[in-house]
Amino acid sequence: MKINFVPCDFLDIEEFVDEYEASLASPIDSFLEDHVMESQCFAIAMDTVYIGYFSVYDKELLTQFYVRKPYRSLGQEIFFKIKRMKNIRCAFVSTGDEFFLSHALDEYRTMEKQAYFFQDAKDLIKEGKIDQTIHIRLAEERDMEEVVEKSEGFYDNLEESIWNQEIYIAEKSNRIVGFGIIENGSIMRNYASIGMYTVAEFRQQGIGRNILLMLKEIVYSNGMKPIAGCWYYNHESKKTLESAGMYTDTRLLKIHY
């Protein structure tokens, strides 16, 4: 029996990626998805049979590790070989990915809490918490300069995001009070990641919560489920997401070797 790693792209192993998605206890958000999609992907072959895959970001960060159940007795052997052969120094692991997490924890040096992943509790929001005077609209190319100015450079790849119709502008009394974003999942195809940014002078007024509520409605109307994420130590963002009916029971960990 010989284990080999074969460079590939996600189209080559789409069946494995679908199995991986189905195996998760909870979904991953666009932050981790972006790292996965920008990673180098390798199929895991046992002799001539493909039994799983893994992906490596920036030549040292392991972002996925999946092996089919009939071959999981080889999981530790394969994982140690990946770390050795690919010079893996760290891993991004969702706590909702039990298989990857268990192997990532077998031998590690240090661990960081990187982010929270959120899902929608579908709780009814009290009427007094909903501001009917806030409206959102899709951002257009002509809005780009103002989005950059008022969001203080918050968004990466803004031009591409506007072109993809992912950025929303929130207005109240004809003034821009914040921005939203909806990113459809690349791996989690039934989910869309939502996020918001409140213009500094309008913070602590429930703007962020109302933007998230409207973004959730748009996602549901598109036949998808809203998810979200925030940096583990961004306490204000966590509070805002929870006030919009989101909850977190999943963490993103960065594990170092």
UniProtKB/TrEMBL annotation:
An annotated Gene Ontology molecular function: acyltransferase activity, transferring groups other than amino-acyl groups
Pfam assignment, any one: Acetyltransf_1
Domain N-acetyltransferase: start-end pairs: 134-257
Domain of life of the native organism: Bacteria
Keywords for this protein: Transferase
Protein name: GCN5-related N-acetyltransferase
